[in-house]
Write a structure and sequence with these properties.
Number of strands: 3
Family: Belongs to the 'phage' integrase family.
Strand content: under 5%
Pfam families: Phage_int_SAM_4 (PF13495), Phage_integrase (PF00589)
Mean pLDDT: 86
GO biological process, one term: DNA recombination
CATH topology of the largest domain: hpI Integrase, Chain A
CATH superfamily of the largest domain: Intergrase catalytic core
GO molecular function, one term: DNA binding
Distance between the termini: 72 Å
Structural class: mainly alpha
Largest sheet: 3 strands, antiparallel
Protein name: Site-specific recombinase XerD
Number of domains: 2
Oligomer: single chain
CATH architecture of the largest domain: Orthogonal Bundle
Shape: globular
Strand order of the largest sheet: 1-2-3
Order of helices and strands: HHHHHHHHEEEHHHHHHHH
Length: about 300
Protein backbone atom coordinates (compact mmCIF):
# COMPACT_ATOMS: atom_id res chain seq x y z
CA UNK A 1 0.00 0.00 0.00
CA UNK A 2 1.15 3.60 -0.54
CA UNK A 3 2.61 5.24 2.53
CA UNK A 4 1.57 8.58 3.90
CA UNK A 5 4.44 11.08 4.17
CA UNK A 6 6.62 10.85 7.31
CA UNK A 7 4.72 13.70 9.00
CA UNK A 8 1.55 11.57 8.98
CA UNK A 9 2.98 8.09 9.49
CA UNK A 10 2.55 6.06 12.63
CA UNK A 11 -0.65 6.13 14.63
CA UNK A 12 -2.65 8.32 12.23
CA UNK A 13 -1.93 6.07 9.25
CA UNK A 14 -2.56 2.97 11.34
CA UNK A 15 -5.91 4.33 12.49
CA UNK A 16 -6.87 5.17 8.91
CA UNK A 17 -5.96 1.67 7.69
CA UNK A 18 -7.79 0.09 10.65
CA UNK A 19 -10.91 2.18 10.00
CA UNK A 20 -11.00 0.92 6.42
CA UNK A 21 -10.25 -2.69 7.37
CA UNK A 22 -13.04 -2.89 9.95
CA UNK A 23 -15.51 -1.84 7.25
CA UNK A 24 -14.31 -4.54 4.88
CA UNK A 25 -12.91 -2.23 2.20
CA UNK A 26 -11.20 -4.03 -0.68
CA UNK A 27 -7.43 -3.79 -1.09
CA UNK A 28 -7.93 -1.57 -4.14
CA UNK A 29 -10.15 0.86 -2.20
CA UNK A 30 -7.64 1.00 0.66
CA UNK A 31 -4.80 1.73 -1.76
CA UNK A 32 -6.81 4.41 -3.55
CA UNK A 33 -7.84 6.10 -0.28
CA UNK A 34 -4.29 6.02 1.08
CA UNK A 35 -2.99 7.48 -2.17
CA UNK A 36 -5.57 10.28 -2.04
CA UNK A 37 -4.80 11.26 1.55
CA UNK A 38 -1.07 11.10 0.79
CA UNK A 39 -1.65 13.49 -2.12
CA UNK A 40 -3.58 15.84 0.16
CA UNK A 41 -0.74 15.72 2.69
CA UNK A 42 1.77 16.51 -0.06
CA UNK A 43 -0.33 19.52 -1.05
CA UNK A 44 -0.40 20.72 2.59
CA UNK A 45 3.28 19.88 3.19
CA UNK A 46 2.24 18.84 6.69
CA UNK A 47 0.03 16.29 8.43
CA UNK A 48 -3.54 16.11 7.07
CA UNK A 49 -4.60 15.93 10.70
CA UNK A 50 -3.89 19.68 10.88
CA UNK A 51 -6.05 20.59 7.87
CA UNK A 52 -8.41 23.55 7.95
CA UNK A 53 -11.51 24.41 5.96
CA UNK A 54 -9.44 26.85 3.90
CA UNK A 55 -6.92 24.10 3.13
CA UNK A 56 -9.71 21.97 1.71
CA UNK A 57 -11.02 24.86 -0.34
CA UNK A 58 -7.59 25.59 -1.81
CA UNK A 59 -6.99 21.88 -2.50
CA UNK A 60 -10.16 21.57 -4.55
CA UNK A 61 -9.39 24.82 -6.38
CA UNK A 62 -5.98 23.38 -7.28
CA UNK A 63 -7.59 20.18 -8.57
CA UNK A 64 -9.96 22.19 -10.75
CA UNK A 65 -7.15 24.39 -12.10
CA UNK A 66 -5.17 21.27 -12.99
CA UNK A 67 -8.10 20.05 -15.10
CA UNK A 68 -9.09 17.05 -12.98
CA UNK A 69 -12.40 15.68 -14.25
CA UNK A 70 -15.53 15.47 -12.11
CA UNK A 71 -15.47 11.67 -11.46
CA UNK A 72 -11.85 11.87 -10.28
CA UNK A 73 -12.60 14.84 -8.03
CA UNK A 74 -15.58 13.01 -6.55
CA UNK A 75 -13.41 9.96 -5.85
CA UNK A 76 -11.05 12.28 -3.96
CA UNK A 77 -14.00 13.65 -2.01
CA UNK A 78 -15.10 10.14 -1.02
CA UNK A 79 -11.65 9.27 0.32
CA UNK A 80 -11.17 12.51 2.22
CA UNK A 81 -14.69 12.45 3.66
CA UNK A 82 -14.04 9.00 5.05
CA UNK A 83 -10.71 10.16 6.49
CA UNK A 84 -12.19 13.26 8.12
CA UNK A 85 -15.40 11.59 9.35
CA UNK A 86 -14.02 8.33 10.71
CA UNK A 87 -10.31 8.71 11.36
CA UNK A 88 -10.11 12.33 12.48
CA UNK A 89 -13.69 12.62 13.74
CA UNK A 90 -13.95 15.98 11.97
CA UNK A 91 -17.33 15.95 10.19
CA UNK A 92 -17.14 19.74 10.00
CA UNK A 93 -14.25 19.41 7.56
CA UNK A 94 -15.91 16.60 5.62
CA UNK A 95 -18.88 18.89 4.96
CA UNK A 96 -16.57 21.42 3.26
CA UNK A 97 -15.73 18.98 0.47
CA UNK A 98 -17.77 19.67 -2.66
CA UNK A 99 -19.05 16.87 -4.89
CA UNK A 100 -19.53 17.84 -8.52
CA UNK A 101 -22.60 16.98 -10.55
CA UNK A 102 -22.01 15.75 -14.07
CA UNK A 103 -24.06 13.95 -16.70
CA UNK A 104 -23.62 10.20 -16.51
CA UNK A 105 -22.65 8.57 -19.78
CA UNK A 106 -24.79 5.70 -20.95
CA UNK A 107 -22.96 2.42 -20.40
CA UNK A 108 -21.71 0.39 -23.35
CA UNK A 109 -23.89 -2.72 -23.64
CA UNK A 110 -23.37 -5.77 -25.82
CA UNK A 111 -26.19 -7.54 -27.57
CA UNK A 112 -26.63 -11.22 -26.59
CA UNK A 113 -24.98 -12.16 -29.89
CA UNK A 114 -22.02 -9.89 -29.20
CA UNK A 115 -21.67 -11.28 -25.66
CA UNK A 116 -21.62 -14.81 -27.09
CA UNK A 117 -18.97 -13.85 -29.66
CA UNK A 118 -16.81 -12.20 -27.00
CA UNK A 119 -16.89 -15.19 -24.65
CA UNK A 120 -16.34 -17.63 -27.53
CA UNK A 121 -13.26 -15.67 -28.64
CA UNK A 122 -11.33 -16.41 -25.43
CA UNK A 123 -8.26 -18.60 -25.87
CA UNK A 124 -8.48 -20.93 -22.85
CA UNK A 125 -11.06 -22.46 -20.55
CA UNK A 126 -10.00 -20.37 -17.54
CA UNK A 127 -10.55 -17.12 -19.41
CA UNK A 128 -13.85 -18.32 -20.87
CA UNK A 129 -15.05 -19.27 -17.38
CA UNK A 130 -13.95 -15.93 -15.88
CA UNK A 131 -15.73 -13.87 -18.54
CA UNK A 132 -18.79 -16.09 -18.22
CA UNK A 133 -18.91 -15.35 -14.48
CA UNK A 134 -18.67 -11.61 -15.18
CA UNK A 135 -21.56 -11.78 -17.65
CA UNK A 136 -23.60 -14.66 -16.22
CA UNK A 137 -23.57 -13.39 -12.64
CA UNK A 138 -23.07 -9.66 -13.22
CA UNK A 139 -19.93 -9.45 -11.09
CA UNK A 140 -17.45 -6.59 -11.00
CA UNK A 141 -13.99 -7.47 -12.29
CA UNK A 142 -12.49 -7.29 -8.78
CA UNK A 143 -15.22 -9.61 -7.53
CA UNK A 144 -14.44 -12.14 -10.27
CA UNK A 145 -10.73 -12.01 -9.46
CA UNK A 146 -11.26 -12.53 -5.72
CA UNK A 147 -13.59 -15.55 -5.98
CA UNK A 148 -12.54 -18.74 -4.24
CA UNK A 149 -13.59 -22.28 -5.08
CA UNK A 150 -15.58 -22.40 -1.84
CA UNK A 151 -17.69 -19.41 -2.99
CA UNK A 152 -19.47 -21.61 -5.54
CA UNK A 153 -22.54 -23.11 -3.85
CA UNK A 154 -23.83 -25.71 -6.30
CA UNK A 155 -26.45 -26.97 -3.85
CA UNK A 156 -28.24 -23.64 -3.62
CA UNK A 157 -27.06 -22.49 -7.08
CA UNK A 158 -25.51 -19.31 -5.71
CA UNK A 159 -22.17 -17.52 -5.83
CA UNK A 160 -21.11 -15.97 -2.53
CA UNK A 161 -19.59 -12.53 -3.09
CA UNK A 162 -17.93 -11.96 0.25
CA UNK A 163 -16.31 -8.59 -0.39
CA UNK A 164 -18.31 -6.52 -2.81
CA UNK A 165 -18.06 -2.78 -3.25
CA UNK A 166 -18.18 -0.98 0.08
CA UNK A 167 -17.59 -4.25 1.90
CA UNK A 168 -21.14 -5.44 1.22
CA UNK A 169 -21.50 -9.19 0.74
CA UNK A 170 -24.27 -10.69 -1.37
CA UNK A 171 -25.34 -13.77 -3.27
CA UNK A 172 -25.03 -13.75 -7.05
CA UNK A 173 -26.74 -15.86 -9.67
CA UNK A 174 -25.29 -19.28 -10.56
CA UNK A 175 -26.99 -20.69 -13.63
CA UNK A 176 -26.79 -24.37 -14.68
CA UNK A 177 -24.77 -23.43 -17.79
CA UNK A 178 -22.29 -21.43 -15.71
CA UNK A 179 -21.99 -24.23 -13.14
CA UNK A 180 -21.23 -26.75 -15.90
CA UNK A 181 -18.53 -24.45 -17.30
CA UNK A 182 -16.97 -23.89 -13.86
CA UNK A 183 -16.91 -27.65 -13.23
CA UNK A 184 -15.12 -28.17 -16.54
CA UNK A 185 -12.59 -25.50 -15.55
CA UNK A 186 -12.17 -27.07 -12.10
CA UNK A 187 -11.35 -30.43 -13.66
CA UNK A 188 -8.89 -28.92 -16.13
CA UNK A 189 -7.29 -26.77 -13.47
CA UNK A 190 -6.83 -29.81 -11.23
CA UNK A 191 -5.12 -31.68 -14.07
CA UNK A 192 -2.81 -28.71 -14.61
CA UNK A 193 -2.07 -28.52 -10.89
CA UNK A 194 -3.21 -24.89 -10.50
CA UNK A 195 -6.55 -25.47 -8.74
CA UNK A 196 -6.40 -26.11 -5.03
CA UNK A 197 -9.25 -27.05 -2.65
CA UNK A 198 -10.34 -23.83 -0.98
CA UNK A 199 -8.01 -21.87 -3.25
CA UNK A 200 -8.66 -19.18 -5.85
CA UNK A 201 -11.26 -19.95 -8.51
CA UNK A 202 -9.11 -18.16 -11.08
CA UNK A 203 -5.47 -18.44 -9.99
CA UNK A 204 -2.84 -16.14 -11.41
CA UNK A 205 0.54 -17.19 -12.78
CA UNK A 206 1.39 -18.01 -9.18
CA UNK A 207 -1.46 -20.34 -8.10
CA UNK A 208 -1.13 -18.98 -4.57
CA UNK A 209 -2.39 -15.62 -5.82
CA UNK A 210 -5.54 -14.75 -7.80
CA UNK A 211 -5.64 -13.49 -11.35
CA UNK A 212 -5.31 -9.69 -11.43
CA UNK A 213 -7.97 -7.30 -12.62
CA UNK A 214 -5.46 -5.93 -15.11
CA UNK A 215 -4.98 -9.36 -16.63
CA UNK A 216 -8.75 -9.84 -16.91
CA UNK A 217 -8.93 -6.49 -18.66
CA UNK A 218 -6.36 -7.63 -21.20
CA UNK A 219 -8.30 -10.88 -21.72
CA UNK A 220 -11.46 -8.92 -22.56
CA UNK A 221 -9.63 -6.54 -24.88
CA UNK A 222 -7.99 -9.42 -26.79
CA UNK A 223 -11.29 -11.31 -27.05
CA UNK A 224 -13.06 -8.18 -28.34
CA UNK A 225 -10.48 -7.82 -31.12
CA UNK A 226 -10.72 -11.50 -31.99
CA UNK A 227 -14.54 -11.27 -32.04
CA UNK A 228 -14.33 -8.22 -34.33
CA UNK A 229 -16.36 -6.05 -31.95
CA UNK A 230 -16.29 -2.35 -32.75
CA UNK A 231 -17.56 -1.23 -29.34
CA UNK A 232 -15.14 -0.16 -26.60
CA UNK A 233 -15.35 -3.19 -24.32
CA UNK A 234 -14.03 -3.70 -20.79
CA UNK A 235 -14.80 -6.30 -18.10
CA UNK A 236 -17.45 -3.94 -16.70
CA UNK A 237 -19.23 -4.05 -20.07
CA UNK A 238 -20.20 -7.63 -19.26
CA UNK A 239 -21.78 -6.51 -15.98
CA UNK A 240 -23.66 -3.73 -17.79
CA UNK A 241 -24.88 -6.25 -20.37
CA UNK A 242 -26.02 -8.70 -17.67
CA UNK A 243 -28.19 -6.04 -16.01
CA UNK A 244 -29.60 -4.71 -19.28
CA UNK A 245 -30.49 -8.13 -20.63
CA UNK A 246 -32.25 -9.08 -17.38
CA UNK A 247 -34.25 -5.86 -17.53
CA UNK A 248 -35.21 -6.53 -21.14
CA UNK A 249 -36.32 -10.03 -20.14
CA UNK A 250 -38.77 -8.53 -17.64
CA UNK A 251 -36.89 -9.14 -14.40
CA UNK A 252 -37.99 -6.72 -11.67
CA UNK A 253 -35.53 -3.85 -11.29
CA UNK A 254 -35.27 -4.37 -7.51
CA UNK A 255 -34.23 -7.97 -8.07
CA UNK A 256 -31.55 -6.73 -10.46
CA UNK A 257 -30.47 -4.20 -7.84
CA UNK A 258 -29.96 -7.00 -5.31
CA UNK A 259 -28.07 -9.18 -7.80
CA UNK A 260 -25.74 -6.30 -8.69
CA UNK A 261 -25.22 -5.28 -5.08
CA UNK A 262 -26.24 -1.67 -5.71
CA UNK A 263 -26.84 0.33 -2.55
CA UNK A 264 -29.12 2.75 -4.41
CA UNK A 265 -31.88 1.96 -6.87
CA UNK A 266 -30.88 5.05 -8.88
CA UNK A 267 -27.72 3.24 -9.98
CA UNK A 268 -29.72 0.29 -11.28
CA UNK A 269 -32.31 2.54 -12.94
CA UNK A 270 -29.59 3.75 -15.32
CA UNK A 271 -30.08 0.53 -17.30
CA UNK A 272 -33.63 1.52 -18.20
CA UNK A 273 -32.01 4.09 -20.52
CA UNK A 274 -30.19 1.44 -22.54
CA UNK A 275 -32.73 -1.40 -22.48
CA UNK A 276 -33.76 -0.94 -26.11
CA UNK A 277 -35.82 -4.12 -26.32
CA UNK A 278 -37.94 -2.86 -23.42
CA UNK A 279 -38.49 0.45 -25.24
CA UNK A 280 -39.56 -1.35 -28.40
CA UNK A 281 -42.28 -3.25 -26.53
CA UNK A 282 -43.95 -0.04 -25.36
CA UNK A 283 -46.95 1.13 -27.39
CA UNK A 284 -46.82 4.81 -28.22
CA UNK A 285 -49.98 6.76 -27.28
CA UNK A 286 -49.85 8.12 -30.85
CA UNK A 287 -50.80 4.66 -32.14
CA UNK A 288 -53.98 4.69 -30.09
CA UNK A 289 -54.83 8.23 -31.21
CA UNK A 290 -54.21 7.48 -34.87
CA UNK A 291 -56.50 4.46 -34.65
CA UNK A 292 -59.35 6.88 -33.82
CA UNK A 293 -58.75 9.06 -36.88
CA UNK A 294 -60.48 8.26 -40.15
CA UNK A 295 -58.04 7.31 -42.95
CA UNK A 296 -59.12 10.26 -45.12
CA UNK A 297 -58.31 12.66 -42.26
CA UNK A 298 -54.70 11.49 -42.13
CA UNK A 299 -53.91 11.73 -45.85
CA UNK A 300 -54.44 15.42 -46.56
CA UNK A 301 -56.96 16.75 -49.10
CA UNK A 302 -55.09 17.64 -52.26
CA UNK A 303 -55.47 21.39 -52.88
CA UNK A 304 -55.56 22.23 -49.19
CA UNK A 305 -52.43 20.26 -48.32
CA UNK A 306 -49.85 22.53 -49.93
CA UNK A 307 -47.62 24.96 -48.07
Amino acid sequence: MPHLPPATSGSLRERFVADMAVRGFTDKTCKDYLRTVAGFAAFLERSPGTATAEDIRQFQIRQSEQGMNAPAMNSTVAALRFFFNHTLDRPDLARKLIRLRYPRKLPVVLSPDEAARLIAATTCLKHRAALSVAYGAGLRVAEVASLKVSDIDSRRMLIAVERGKGGRGRHALLSPALLALLRAWWQEGRREGVMRPGGWLFPGQDPARPITTRQLGRVVEAAAVAADLTKHVSPHTLRHSFATHLLEDGVDIRVIQALLGHAKLDNTALYTRVATRTVRTVTSPLDRVMARIEPRETMGSGAGSGG
